[in-house]
Design brief:
This protein is an alpha+beta fold and about 300 residues long. It has 13 helices and ten strands. Strand 4 and strand 5 form a beta hairpin. The protein starts with 5 loop residues before the first helix and ends in a 17-residue tail after the last helix.
């Protein structure tokens, strides 16, 4: 990758950090890269595709690969397809105005992290220096594939009939060992979508009151959360599931309230579904079928 200098990689991560600084809740990786392309002047080389894969433009993969150091340095968090700038990343952006210095410092911190790992120093291809195009393709394919797969499942959930989506949540609770005693029928539900308890008679543990929102394009705000909390009695546990997530005000209110409440966003729901897969009954698996797929993980290999 001789065409991409250390200064250019620094310019890329510097521009990315500036974008993410204005988005404290983070951006989807795909959206962050798309916005970065409008912020930077992308070169013809970066616009071109790989000879071995004419369908893959170089720029998104260059961005992903250039940020590996920043993740290991603790500056950038990549979690469930969302990229977020950390406090350390904001400090680095402020302290290191020169883009090449920013990139070099990420390399120093990367090597420091690497030295602390129980893996032979020569076995990790993640640093990016002297990386071949084939290595770049392989190293970024896993990250892209994971993001695309997760988003496909979330989009599927978002397109489901709302009553089937309630059934999905009910099946998840059953797989987690709870007894679902009521799921809201069509029509007004009075603010509740389901009721569950720890045993068939409701003797053990608290009663769970659930509300589910499958809309992906908006977050649940504080007022909606307050309305739900008004239904949670002292011995209840509230579970609010929102594919689109929650506003920061809603998150803060959930932490302050004396009521027992758990907020679950789309990625969190997907993680619970995958973790509970082996315990789901066949009906539940058919409602939301997922499948594990193996990919080559170049960065995590110990046999380079």
């Amino acid at each position: 990758m001789a065409e991409i200098t250390a200064r250019r990689k620094g310019e890329i991560i510097q521009a990315l950090f500036k974008l993410l600084k204005e988005e404290p809740e983070g951006l989807r990786a795909k959206d962050a890269i798309a916005r970065l392309q409008t912020t930077l002047t992308v070169t013809e080389f970066e616009k071109s595709t790989f000879p071995s894969d004419p369908t893959s433009p170089r720029f998104p993969k260059i961005v992903r690969f250039s940020t590996i150091r920043s993740v290991k340095a603790g500056w950038l968090r990549k979690q469930k397809g969302i990229w977020t700038l950390t406090e350390d990343g904001q400090a680095a952006l402020k302290a290191l105005a020169d883009p090449e210095a920013l990139y070099r410092e990420s390399g120093r911190l990367y090597r420091k992290w690497k030295a602390s790992q129980p893996v032979d120093e020569t076995s990790d291809a993640g640093d990016g220096e002297g990386q071949t195009e084939e290595g770049l393709l392989a190293a970024t394919t896993l990250e892209e594939a994971e993001e695309a797969a997760r988003q496909a499942v979330l989009d599927f959930m978002g397109s489901m009939n709302p009553y089937l989506f309630q059934d999905v949540v009910g099946k998840l609770l059953e797989a987690m060992g709870y007894h679902v005693v009521w799921i809201a029928p069509r029509g007004k539900d009075g603010g509740l979508d389901l009721l569950a308890q720890g045993d068939p008679l409701g003797v053990q543990g608290p009663r769970i009151k659930g509300q589910v929102k499958r809309r992906q394009d908006s977050k649940v705000g504080e007022e909606e959360l307050r309305s739900f909390l008004s239904l949670i009695e002292p011995h209840d546990v509230g579970v609010y599931i929102s594919l689109g997530g929650f506003t920061s005000d809603a998150d803060q209110h959930a932490r302050r309230t004396s009521r027992r409440i758990t907020l679950i966003d789309g990625p969190g729901l997907l993680d619970l579904w995958v973790d509970s897969w082996q315990r789901l009954d066949e009906e539940g698996r058919q409602l939301l079928p997922v499948k594990a797929v193996w990919f080559l993980d170049i960065e995590g290999s110990s046999s380079q």
